[in-house]
Specification:
The protein has 369 residues and is of the alpha/beta class. The chain is 38% helix and 18% strand.
């Protein structure tokens, strides 16, 4: 097994995102030395801490928020990575997302390198590109994926090549994150809502217009919903949400918390909101970590129609679907919601026999060469 790997990603630390945090600890547990080469934006803030064996180097620090500036930043970043790879003695890389894998693909024609393409968000599916641009982007992505030693994707819905180098690892929790989250949950001594018996709705992560922001705003504006439910918010919430929950005793905003702590609140919750605009193709093919977190913690979630992959969770996790294009549909759903107490009584362990994320990645990394 290889002893050193360079990981390419974004943020001030490798553990900036849940995915890279899982990867950092998995590689550490395999006694692999990790170099993290990063593009960091000045607005990137985190409380996350990397394992001791992760050596960090910020290759590029940017501050532009304009559309033109962002495009030029991506181009410059890929150029810097290309030069770094050509000059570096390292041969083994894990690239998170296209902007990190594409320069490796180019460099591989000039020097012998091997890379895992962690294709978390297929670029040709992420935006509604024009019919002229999309085929070209997909063509380039396919070339990058085919040249990788391993093309790592989160589900069968993301397959766009017919290569034997594909490995599917769903967005499931890691074994230690699940264990830590369960411990945090069991040791949590104080109730967030003063022993209120109302069902708890959990909203976490990225809350934007294409992920149900307006549905959630409408639910918070409805006094009948607040009378029936308590809400837990985790992560950086938009100002519109913060204004609506300010002074509302039925709402608690935890702000930015660790990945393990965020997972622990699934055990406290009766329902998780996971809405995705299905008009965006990548959303229609989503297999988000929230659904798997719900499956592993035995927590019900509500999603929306138009998501091709949600039916894969039938028999794995309890869920309901609403109409995304009706921004009052979440309000209607919550007002008709019936709590399943018998389901909640068993939330004391893992709700599936599936392997944890690190157990799946271990096998892949051991075969990487």
């Amino acid at each position: 097994m290889i002893k050193s790997i360079v990981c390419l990603g974004n943020g001030p630390v490798m553990s900036f995102t849940p995915y890279m945090a899982k990867l950092a600890k998995t590689l550490t547990n395999l006694d692999i030395h990790v170099k993290f080469i990063s593009w960091c934006r000045e607005t990137d803030k985190t409380t996350a801490i990397d394992p001791d064996c992760v050596e960090k180097k910020i290759l590029y620090m940017s501050n532009s928020n304009t559309k033109l500036g962002l495009i030029s930043n991506y181009i410059y970043w890929m150029f810097l990575v290309f030069l770094y790879v050509l000059k570096s003695p390292d041969k083994f890389y894990i690239c998170s997302r296209f902007e990190n894998a594409f320069p490796l693909y180019l460099a591989s024609f000039f020097k012998r390198v091997s890379y895992i393409y962690a294709d978390r968000d297929a670029l040709h599916l992420t935006y509604n590109w024009s019919s002229l641009i999309n085929p070209f982007i997909k063509f380039v992505e396919s070339k990058v994926a085919l040249r990788a030693a391993i093309h790592l994707i989160p589900g069968s819905s993301r397959v766009y090549t017919k290569s034997s180098n594909i490995s599917i690892v769903p967005n499931v929790p890691s074994s230690w994150a699940f264990k830590n989250a369960l411990t945090i949950y069991k040791e949590r001594s104080e109730s967030l809502f003063r022993n209120s018996l109302k069902p708890i709705v959990y909203i976490n992560g990225w809350v934007v217009p294409n992920r149900g922001l307006h549905h959630i705003e409408n639910a918070l504006k409805c006094s009948s919903v607040s009378d029936r439910f308590n809400f837990i918010f985790a992560g950086d919430m938009p100002e519109s949400i913060l204004n609506l929950i300010s002074g509302n005793e039925s709402c608690v905003c935890l702000g930015r918390i660790s990945n393990d702590e965020a997972l622990s609140y699934y055990f406290n919750s009766d329902l998780v909101i996971t809405l995705y605009n299905p008009a965006i193709r990548i959303n229609a093919l989503a297999e988000p970590n929230k659904w798997w977190d719900c499956a592993y913690t035995r927590t019900k979630f509500v999603a929306n129609y138009g998501l091709d992959t949600v039916e894969n969770f039938s028999g794995i996790c309890e869920f309901d679907l609403i109409d995304y294009f009706d921004e009052m549909s979440l309000v209607k759903y919550l007002l008709s919601y019936k709590e399943n107490n018998s389901f909640l009584d068993v939330k004391v362990g893992c709700g599936t026999n599936n392997k944890f994320w690190d157990e799946r990645i271990n096998t892949i990394v051991r075969d990487f060469k």
